[in-house]
Design a protein that fits this description.
Pfam families: adh_short. The chain is of the alpha/beta class. 37% of the residues lie in helices and 14% in strands.
Length: 295
């Protein structure tokens, strides 16, 4: 382990399972004190398509996993859809651990539906998760980062936020991801615009998305049968790379998890930082609009 983040603190939203847990574990392996957050410390129900679902994974499990490998993590439950809980979260993190160096806006919501059939509630909730929540958490963190003279914000993007491949694939005709994808495209632009605003304060803002897809408990119901996925380690490593270089060297990028390490020649490590994984070339069928080193 290179311990590149010793002395730094990180807040990772949506880290009770899946991508968020992988990112939190990777940052902790590099020495960061990581605050993990989700709606509740234990698995809690979520409403999708009008039905209540409880997806496995908890903050307690994430903390235990990080502590077992020798890292430091603190669970801080917060419902980010609740304005009162959301708007005090960053200050609570600063009070608990003494500061905030890294903010990873990972928490998400996906309830795919065609435009004709989508409810306004789903539309609003999707935009909340990918615009309002990152906007408010970033606002809260920026003041603290300005005082420190440095900081790193990483938004978790998506290749769906890029222009779809033509001629249109069957997936684009039937997946119902249009509003999710539009929100991710807006989040990419938010990333690039905020990066420009805070560059002179030494704060880096970047986005990282999966080059293909990652099979998480939440994504399993959304991916078509047989869809090729990738391990979470490649995305977690790319997030780490976006949290280490000064803003003057690396900011305003929209990057992707297989493309960036492959093009930059960056070793990808296991989540605990102890072993190097094989180099993994982006598949030929991935979105051709992805720029290998980000855009």
């Amino acid at each position: 382990m290179t311990q590149r983040l010793v002395g730094r603190t990180a807040l990772v939203t949506g880290s009770s399972r899946g991508i968020g847990r992988g990112i939190a574990t990777r940052l902790a392996a590099e020495g960061a004190t990581v605050v993990v957050t989700a709606r509740a410390a234990r698995p809690s129900p979520s409403v999708r398509s009008g039905s209540v679902q409880t997806i496995e994974g908890s903050l307690d499990e994430t903390v235990a996993l990080i502590e077992e490998m020798g890292g430091t993590a603190i669970a801080m439950p917060a419902d980010l859809e609740n304005a009162e809980q959301r708007d005090v979260l960053v200050d609570s993190v600063v009070q608990a651990v003494g500061g905030i160096d890294i903010l990873v806006n990972n928490a998400g919501f996906a309830d795919y539906s065609s435009i004709e059939d989508m409810t306004l509630a789903t539309f609003d909730r999707t935009l909340d998760h990918y615009l309002r929540i990152p906007f408010r958490l970033s606002q809260s963190a920026l003041g603290h980062m300005r005082k420190q003279g440095a900081g790193w914000i990483v938004n978790i993007g998506s290749s769906t936020g890029l222009s779809p491949i033509r001629p249109y694939r069957d997936y684009n005709k039937t997946s119902g991801d249009v509003i999710y994808a539009a929100a991710k495209a807006a989040q990419h632009r938010f990333t690039q615009g905020l990066a420009a605003e805070v560059l002179d304060a030494g704060i880096a803002v970047n986005a990282v998305g999966p080059s293909t897809a990652i099979m998480t408990p939440g994504a399993a119901a959304l991916l078509p049968e047989g869809y090729e996925t990738e391990p979470v380690e490649y995305l977690a490593q790319t997030v780490l790379e976006m949290c280490t270089a000064p803003a003057a060297e690396r900011t305003g990028l929209v990057t992707f998890s297989l493309h960036y390490p492959w093009a930059a020649g960056i070793p990808v490590m296991t989540l605990d930082g102890t072993s190097e994984l094989p180099r993994r070339e982006p598949p030929a069928w991935s979105n051709p609009n992805i720029k290998p080193l980000g855009v």
